[in-house]
TrEMBL record:
InterPro entries: PQQ_b-propeller_rpt, PQQ_rpt_dom, Quinoprotein_ADH-like_sf, WD40/YVTN_repeat-like_dom_sf. Residues 1-23 form the signal peptide. This is PQQ-binding-like beta-propeller repeat protein. Keywords: Signal. It comes from the Bacteria. The lineage of its organism: Bacteria, Deltaproteobacteria, Bradymonadales, Lujinxingiaceae, Lujinxingia. Residues 80-306 form the Pyrrolo-quinoline quinone repeat domain. SUPFAM superfamilies: Quinoprotein alcohol dehydrogenase-like.
Amino acid sequence: MTFKVGRAWLVAALVSFVGGGCAMQPAQPTGLDSVGQPTARVKVEWRVPLSSDRPWEINPREFGKPVLAPGGDLVVGASDGYVYRVRADTGELVWSKEIGGSIDAPVALVDGYVYAASSQGSLHKLSWERGEEIWRADGRSAFEAQPAVSDGLVAVTDSADVLYVFDAVSGELVWDYQRRQPDFFTIMGGGTPVFSGNRIFCGFADGHLVSLFSDSGEVEWTANLGDASQEFGDVDLAVIDDGELLYAVSYAGGIYAVEKSSGALMWHQDIESVADLIMQGPWLLGVSATGHVFALSKNDGEPVWRFRMPEGQSPVALSTTGPLLSVATASGPLYLVRTRDGRPVTRWNPSSGFQRAPVYDSVRGYTLSNRGYLYGYRLAY
């Protein structure tokens, strides 16, 4: 039997019990007290309550993340089972559409359509203009990962480690692929599929990264990222496609660079409990449940710097804006740190924490708090 454990719970537990644990040298003095006066601050321009009416929940969580449309509006799914379209400049609600269950992953917005996955195991295609449902497709268990859309296909995984590919026009199932779930603890949710040309790359709870041909589901190669008997060996973050290389994360095993054409291992950095990883220029930037924000060289995986979060803070996600990183914590503030060395600049705390990092356009940042409030804010320097 496979036992699923929520990532946010595991992050908090590891921060409490693991301590330092990251095999890197620290950057210059870290922590807000070492920096002095902040050089930036968050100015909230609007706040919209989406799924905020939940007084009975002790520790609410929101796994939705605002997605920016080319015209400037936002679309986001929330735990109340609704998808919302919101004006980016004012926070005005344009439409809302109930799809049921809880929406525990970002939606996808492609070619004027919104694709939203529900914890009830249903995938919905909605019109961007009015939120009307075009079609609904059903899986075998909860959808908890962001859908991917490319060349008329929609890929999504469920909590039973099934990868589905649907026709984007009709919603009909094209093919599916399943790996055997391990008989031990894994992270709640499924892998996040990524299209690249005529292939789909997707990780699974058994610690494998798989390359499949998108038209047929035929397996091209599999890469075992770590010990297959290891608990929490899930490869559930989206891989980063860097041309000839892919960068993938096993929650227990660390960060891997694999050859895109063959799945051959190029390098491995043993950083446990990586909760998020992004690429910027020559670096891979990430956060771990051991309480660190870090940078690695993407060429060889060697450490560049690390920043130890204040005690008790659980970093879960990050994103970039100009020279800064936004670091979301599960129960506390949003931190802004300098990309070049990880040193903190300022923090903003709307009291309930976050599960996803903000998104930014040229004017504002946008984020959904665990209390179900969607914020639009500016950074003032």
